Amino acid sequence: MPLKMWLFPLVCVRPDCGKHKLTAAGLYRTVRKVLDIDGWYDLATEYLECKRCKKKYPAWSEDILGQLDMGHRSQFPALLTYRYSCDNRVLRMMRERTQGNSVTQLYKKLMEQHSEAWTQRVLQYLTACEPFTRSSLVQPPVFAEPPSLPALPKPKWLLAVYARDVLGRLHEVKAKITSVLGCVLKMDSTKKVTKKLAGAAAEPGAWCTNVGNEHGQVLVSVLTAAEGHGLHPMAAGLMKRYREAGEAAPKVMYVDRDCCSLHGKSQVNVMFSEWDELEVHLDIWHFMRRFAAGVTTEAHPLYGIFMACLFMCIFEWDPDDVAALHRAKKGELAAKKAGHISGKALSARITRRELALPCRRRPRGVEETTRLIGSLVDLFDSASGKDTLGVPLLDHERIQQIWKEQHKHVQCIQDPENFPLYTKTGTLKKGGVELCCYRCARGSTSLESFHLHLNRFIPGTSASDAHFQAYLLEGLMRWNDDRMEDAIKGASSIRTYGSAMKEAVDKLSRTVFGKPWDERYRPPGAYTGKKFNNLFFCNILLSELLEMEYLYSQTGKTLTPVLQNPEEEDRLVEEVDDQDL
Description:
alpha+beta
């Protein structure tokens, strides 16, 4: 009741009324039934009327809620649909997209919570009635039986409500995603997640291309019909994002293909034509995987040794970091009174885990890497590359052809000159020596990790295009926020992903206390630009399309609307579906 309780100045939204003030018109006759975590509650509202045009508004309509400031709007407890409504606390339980967190699991948890709460109320009622059965002298009293447990809406309804929740926050979600920048970019594609795409969109959607930064955040994620196909609009959107944000262009981009060209610029450089100084480098893990295609079988006993030696042909440890670690390890062993230890024995006691944080790696250089890889291939392509049964590790013709083709990419896997790829994240004290800890921005390993989680954003085995989009956008926003906490801000006791509420708190804190509520908080950039209308998505930048909308912009299709009519919602409420969604 924003008018009666807060005296909030509300106006008519019709253009011909000129924002005429609304007045109270009693209570709205409809009372909504709202699904809560452990039960149901009823929601009533006031009726508001414009005296000029005689139009009436229930106070829970979006026309009224949209006029409230964030402090008052945040007190509205539920998302309203045609028949039932859903409390915000239930919606929050569906937002964390992890493996096993499906709507069917949520349905089972809600069923248990409702059943426990209902059983407790029945127990209280019977406990209150029981003394009267003993006090009666003539005839035992007759008590009314408790009401039955109200049925819960089925999982498909919960899924549709979740999609509508994402739709209501779409502008905020996309603004946060398209506000991410970086100076070291990584671009890679995967097709695992597209296998969960069901319906008419399953045929054209074959690849999901992602661009990440040095902190593990994802700048953009799009679906395409083929790997590397139709990515020029995505590149144009990224370049426009940097240009409008006033940020310097990225210096380095790691890719798994199209890294160099014998004639002129590479395809990636052509695609990002505005970034003249962008250096495109091949990801070293993908470079090594190309050599793995030359083995007879990865089950060969020498396969692991070959790949480890190939890694050492490419990288070497920074000698200064290794020397500092040796001093620290020597001091640690001296504190344990281990006695004198030779340098070789000391190196043997240092584990790979101890090397990982304080020691940096660097490529060996083009000439040295070429020489070492050539020697390694020749060694394992001889009798030394056979197991005890005489089975060779490498296929001679195939590995020689691979090395001939990959010889030109040795230059691509070297580090860019005069650009630091390691960032100091802290210090580690070991054996009385303070060691620096680093985080490396080299390669696209962080994107490979993201691809694993991206597949888990979609619960179950399949999803329609609209639900697929909702899952991916919500999961992408939360992924970026988590990486920001880990890499930029550090640990925080506050775990919230809504930027609108955090921004409102920050503004009020500056007004009330004269200081920001959270020194680390930075508001996302505005999501503005040319817009187009869509049944499911609105206010979308043509140059910054994400996920399914990018695919559909190339095929001319539109996304399926969610809960288009009351009859559809009634079917979802009543439909019994035990399949894990």
